[in-house]
Design brief:
The chain is of the alpha/beta class. The chain has eleven helices and eight strands. The structure holds adenosine monophosphate. Adenosine monophosphate binds next to helix 4 and helix 5.
C-alpha cells in the first residue's frame, strides 16, 4: 500500500509543478489586476477596454455585451433584460452580478480582467468590494461632458460581426452601413436612439456617477480626460495600470 502511495505521489508532483510553472501570478506572488473602467455611456470604456485587454493579455468583461449576446440568442436572461435595456434603464443588480460572477469564475479571468460597464450602482460596487479581496484593484474614471456623450451615442454605429465601433460624425464608414474593419453590417444600437440616450444619461447621473465618490473615498480613483484622442487616453490608462 505505501508503495502505491509513493508511486502515485511521484507521478502527481511533476504535474503540479507544471501547473504552477504555467501561472506566473502564482509563482511571483503577484495579485491579479482587476481594472474597473468607470464613465458615462460612450465615454470610451468599451473601445479602451478592448485595446487594453489585447495589450495586457487579460479579458475584457462587458456586462452590456454579455446581455446583448443573451438577447441575440433569445435566452431567458436576455428576455428579462431586453425591455430594461431598450428603455435605457438598468437591469437588476442581482441579474448582473450573477452573470458577472459566472464570467469571472472562468479560467481566463484567473490572472485578472477589465470590467467595462460594471459596477453601475452602489449596491453592485459594494457586493464586488466584498468579493474582490485578493486582487489589485485599479479604478479609472473616463471623464466626458454630457454634450460629447450625446453626439457619440447618437452617431455610434456598431458592427454586427466584429463589434467594431464607428461614428457617423467622427469616423464615418467608407461605405455607408459597412464596417471598415471586416465588411460586416453596421447597425445603430436600439438604445442609441435620442429619447433612450436622454434616459441613459439621466440614469447615469442618478445611479452610476455616485461611484466616483465611492472609489474616491477608498483612495482608489484615478481620472483620465476622455475627450482626448483615443491614443492619448490609452497612453494615460496604460501608465496608470502599469504603476498600480
Ligand atoms: P452598455 O453596453 O454598457 O452601455 O450597457 C447597455 C445596457 O445594458 C445598459 O443601459 C443597461 O440597461 C444594461 N447594463 C449593462 N451593464 C449593466 C450593469 N452593470 N447594471 C445594470 N444594467 C446594465
Amino acid at each position: 500500500m505505501p508503495y502505491y502511495f509513493l508511486l502515485g505521489l511521484l507521478c502527481i508532483l511533476p504535474l503540479m509543478g507544471l501547473v504552477y510553472a504555467q501561472d506566473p501570478a502564482q509563482t511571483s506572488g503577484e495579485k491579479p489586476k482587476v481594472i474597473i473602467l468607470l464613465g458615462a455611456p460612450a465615454s470610451g470604456k468599451g473601445t479602451q477596454a478592448q485595446r487594453l485587454a489585447q495589450d495586457l493579455g487579460i479579458p475584457q468583461i462587458s456586462t452590456g455585451d454579455i446581455l446583448r449576446e443573451n438577447i441575440r440568442n433569445g435566452t431567458p436572461l436576455g428576455k428579462e433584460a431586453k425591455s430594461f435595456m431598450d428603455a435605457g434603464r438598468l437591469v437588476s443588480d442581482e441579474l448582473v452580478l450573477n452573470m458577472l460572477f459566472e464570467r469571472i469564475s472562468r479560467p481566463d479571468a484567473a490572472k485578472g480582467y477589465l470590467l467595462d460597464g460594471v459596477p453601475r450602482t452602489i449596491p453592485q460596487a459594494e457586493v464586488l468590494d466584498k468579493k474582490l479581496t485578493d486582487v489589485k484593484l485599479v479604478v479609472v474614471n473616463l471623464d466626458v461632458s454630457d454634450d460629447t456623450t450625446f453626439k457619440r451615442l447618437e452617431g455610434r454605429l456598431t458592427c454586427k460581426s466584429c463589434n467594431n465601433v464607428q461614428n457617423k460624425y467622427f469616423s464615418a464608414p467608407k461605405v455607408e452601413g459597412v464596417c471598415d474593419k471586416c465588411g460586416g453590417e453596421l447597425i445603430q444600437r436600439s438604445d442609441d436612439k435620442p429619447e433612450v440616450i436622454k434616459e441613459r444619461l439621466r440614469v447615469y447621473h442618478e445611479q452610476t456617477e455616485p461611484l466616483i465618490q465611492f472609489y474616491k473615498n477608498k483612495g482608489l480613483l484615478k481620472t483620465v480626460n476622455g475627450e482626448q484622442s483615443p491614443d492619448q487616453v490609452l497612453a494615460e490608462l496604460k501608465a496608470i495600470i502599469n504603476k498600480a
